[in-house]
């Protein structure tokens, strides 16, 4: 196996171990030492890949975002060609919710990362840039959907994008068992119906 | 001063110290020892009020919910009599967003508590009950607003309540500086406008 691939695989193994520690015991417990133990790798080997805990966290978050993007891309491929913007948004938004194990792992990593960002300037910048990037992607779809007549032109793309992103606010309701996954999907669909149907 | 009041005051002082530790360094750092130091009280004195860290966390969360309720009640008192359900919901939802220092402290406590709930069965139950209670209050307002003809009867109260609660999903966007507070308020107003105006 080429060395480059091996390097990448090792980093991903460590990132997944970090997700598990964060999921089971909280991100504060995700020290280099704990993550190494969870990954079944020596402390020194983890330090070889990540010089600091912050670097390790940043990679684990980037990897979570990548995995979410891959799941979204896969979901979008299964849609019609070209996909309807409503369906694309539905795939993007539901993959951000903790509705299956992979999505739960990336969702929890993401929630923990936001809290870490509140007391680390570096993480704050990275988390802000990541969220801004995701917001731009959604805004582009909303804007195009307005141009193509799927969404009423009297809707403001920025505000509607912010409201679509708030659907991730279903996460605590799902995680705490206040609502069932099906109720979360119904809420997403109701929001999308309102956005796409009311061309007043 | 009656002993009962003094006891309550001491617990609130400790709860506020815990909020500060959670806000500045993360809730995982909020051990009895750290909170005692932040509160300027001896470790033993904190243990006199709270036998365990979990008890201390639970009280700090209950106190955050109470403080939020007080701010909401104050906001609602400033509305017309009887207040319009749209305005009541606006007060409730905006006080859950980190738009001023008191709301930021309670919002961060709440976000951290949800993450703690993922790896503590006791906290999970308490957090679920608290969120269920808040959801019931909002659902009651939505239901009444439908009865009174403010919201279209073809809206489902449970789904609309879930969507109103998701507006707390604006929190990461505000905390990370992705959107300005004014954009968050615009999003809340746009959501309420859609809910109250579209009586198709």
Automatic annotation (TrEMBL), chains A, B:
Domain HTH tetR-type as annotated: residue spans: 8-68
Superkingdom of origin: Bacteria
Molecular function GO labels: DNA-binding transcription factor activity; transcription cis-regulatory region binding
Pfam families found in the cross-reference section: TetR_C_6, TetR_N
InterPro entries: BetI_C (IPR039538), Homeodomain-like_sf (IPR009057), HTH-type_TetR-like_transc_reg (IPR050109), HTH_TetR (IPR001647), Tet_transcr_reg_TetR-rel_C_sf (IPR036271)
PANTHER family membership: HTH-TYPE TRANSCRIPTIONAL REGULATOR ACRR (PTHR30055:SF240), HTH-TYPE TRANSCRIPTIONAL REGULATOR RUTR (PTHR30055)
Name of the featured protein: TetR/AcrR family transcriptional regulator
Naturally occurring in which organism (per UniProt): Streptomyces benahoarensis
């Amino acid at each position: 196996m080429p060395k480059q691939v091996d390097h990448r695989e090792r980093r991903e193994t460590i990132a997944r171990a970090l997700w598990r520690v964060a999921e089971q015991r909280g991100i504060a417990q995700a020290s280099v030492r704990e993550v190494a133990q969870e990954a079944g790798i020596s402390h020194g080997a983890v330090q070889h890949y990540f010089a600091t805990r912050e670097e390790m966290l940043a990679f684990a978050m980037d990897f979570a975002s990548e995995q979410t993007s891959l799941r979204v891309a896969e979901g979008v491929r299964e849609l019609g060609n070209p996909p309807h913007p409503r369906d694309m948004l539905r795939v993007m938004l539901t993959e951000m919710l903790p509705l299956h194990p992979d999505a739960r792992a990336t969702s929890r990593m993401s929630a923990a990362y936001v809290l870490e960002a509140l007391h680390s300037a570096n993480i704050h910048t990275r988390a802000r840039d990541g969220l801004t990037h995701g917001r731009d992607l959604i805004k582009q779809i909303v804007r195009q959907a307005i141009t193509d007549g799927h969404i009423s032109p009297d809707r403001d793309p920025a505000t509607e994008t912010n409201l679509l992103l708030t659907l991730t606010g279903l996460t605590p309701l799902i995680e705490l068992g206040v609502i069932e996954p099906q109720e979360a999907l119904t809420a997403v669909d109701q929001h999308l119906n309102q956005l796409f149907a009311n061309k007043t």
